[in-house]
Amino acid sequence: MGTLLHFKSLYTEAFDNCKPSFVVVLLKGYAIFCGVLLTMAVYAFLYRAFTGFDF
Question: Membrane-crossing residues (predicted)?
Fold first, then answer.
């Protein structure tokens, strides 16, 4: 749990002094988009692993 809190503090600290607000919104949206893609990739790999890699 401490690792998640550390990552959260790093994430929030990274955007503290970012001046143009549209850049902050763009970067946060991109971070969420990358997280969704990473989650989908892990899900697809685990699905294939548990179903025996049948294509």
Answer: 30-50
**Every domain of the chain and the residues it spans:** 3-51
Question: What predicted TM-score, i.e. pTM, was given to this entire model?
Answer: 0.65
Q: How many Å apart are CA 29 and CA 39, to the nearest integer?
A: 15
Distance CA 43, CA 38 (A): 9
| AA identity, residue 20 | P
pLDDT one-digit tens code per residue, 3-22: 889 988 888 888 888 888 88
Cα–Cα–Cα angle for 10, 15, 21, rounded to 5 degrees: 165
